[in-house]
Structures are given as structure tokens and as C-alpha cells.
Amino acid sequence: MAFELPALPYSTSALAGAGMCQETLELHHGKHHQAYVTALNGFVEKNADLQGKTLEEIVAFSYNKPDLAPVFNNAGQHWNHILFWENMSPTGGKIPGALETKLIEDFGSVAAFKDAFKAAGVGQFGSGWAWLIAAADGKLKVTKTPNGSNPLATGEGKVLLGVDVWEHSYYLDFRNRRPDYLVNWLDKIANYEYAAEALAAA
Ligand SMILES: [Fe+2]
Q1: Mean pLDDT computed over 14-27
Q2: How far does residue 154's CA lie from ligand 1's centre (Å)?
Q3: Residue 65 CB: number of other CB atoms within 10 A?
Q4: How remote is the CA of residue 163 from the centroid of ligand 1, in Å?
Q5: Helix (H) or strand (E) holding 94
Q6: Residue 170 Cα, ligand 1 centroid: separation in angstroms?
Q7: Residue 31 burial by CB count (10 A; 0-12/13-18/19+): exposed, middle or buried?
Q8: pLDDT tens-digit profile of 114-166?
Q9: Rounded to whole angstroms, how far apart are CA atoms 202 and 200?
Q10: Which residues contact 170 (CB under 8 A, 6 or more apart)?
């Protein structure tokens, strides 16, 4: 069965008050994410090796294979964006107690976590993603990946939270000010409830 664009878990105007306008979400979800899904389905249709595989299996199968780079880019971006929509909320920014305790334990403070996350997003040269992950040693860590890659592919850990730092994610709202987009995202948009649930299930 072909891959499909998932519906947003909120309306395209739901995050406008928190700093992500309706046009950003319409383009990002309806055009950019849709384009990744369409391209991925085109590759699967033409390549029997990809058929019958889950999205996660295609990401793992195509990772670090130069001849499958376009497949990896689009499969990775499909996976990343499915997560990204879930990682935002109109009531975002509130950190549940158990997650807060764990962030303080592993980063020293919530502010130190946010600084590290922001630094990862700002430090990702060009397009990519910043992530909060639960590493194999049980510790929370911040990491970043270029373009369509992700911690699922690199094997760095289980993703709790991911933010898109491609310009299409913030240019209408923040122009070139990626640091401001990231600070706003962490304070007002990030769905820490999702991260807490993912941590509990890790
Ligand atoms: Fe994106």
C-alpha cells in the first residue's frame, strides 16, 4: 500500500498564536511533506527491493547506500515530518513533572537542556533537524542530523522530540532568524507531553 500524508493533529491555524502561522503549516504539511510522500511512493513503485517494507525498514535499508540516497532522503523526511506534527501542540511548552526531573538529572537544568537543543539546531549547517533522544545508556541527549537523516537511521537513540530546521519550517514567521524560531518553538510549541510518553515507553 502506498504511503500517505497523515492529517495534522490540529488545524493549520492552531499554532498561529504560538508563532507558526497558517501559511507556514499549509505549505509545510500540504506541499513539502506531501512532496516527500509522493516521491517516496514513486521510488517504491519502481524498486521491488523497497516493496512490502515499512517506512522504518526503508529508512534503515537505504541509509548510507549512495545509490539509494534519494530514497533515504524522502523516506527519512516522511518519517521526520510524521513525528514533527506530533511534536507540536497549540498548548505546547509545558513540561510534565517526570520529564522535567529527567531533564534536570541529565542536563543540569531545563534551561541547560534548552540551550543545548537550541545550539544543536543553530549549529546544524544548512538543512536538517535537532533532536532530544533517549540514548542506549538511558540518558537523555541532544543531537542533530543533516537533511533527511534522523536518530532512527544513525542508531543514536529513541527520539523523544524533533524540530525541523529547514528554512521552510520558519522563514515566513522568523525570516532568517533560526535561533528565535528555536527559542519560540521550545517555549511555546514543543509537545513535551509527547516526549514524556515516548520516554515512559522507551
Ligand atoms: Fe520540513
Answers
A1: 98
A2: 19
A3: 10
A4: 9
A5: none
A6: 9
A7: exposed
A8: 999 999 999 999 999 999 999 999 999 999 999 999 999 999 999 999 999 99
A9: 6
A10: 24, 177, 178, 181
Q: How far is the CA of 108 from the centre of ligand 1 (A)?
A: 30
Q: 164 C-alpha to center of ligand 1: Å?
A: 6
What amino acid is encoded at 131 in this protein?
Answer: W
The rounded radius of gyration (Å) of the Cα atoms in the chain is: 16
Q: What is the pLDDT of residue 65?
A: 98
* Cα 105 to ligand 1 centroid, rounded to whole Å: 31
Give residue 32 CA to ligand 1 midpoint distance, Å.
Answer: 6
For residue 84, report the distance from its CA to the centre of ligand 1, in Å: 8
Pairing type for strands 128-134 and 140-146 reads: antiparallel
Find the 33 Cα to ligand 1 centroid distance in Å. 7
CA-to-CA dists, residue 184 to 89, 95, 120, angstroms: 13, 15, 15
pTM value > 0.70: yes
- Residue 35 one-letter amino acid: A
Interval between CA 101 and ligand 1 midpoint (Å): 30
Q: Is the dihedral of CA 186, 126, 83, 15 positive or negative?
A: positive
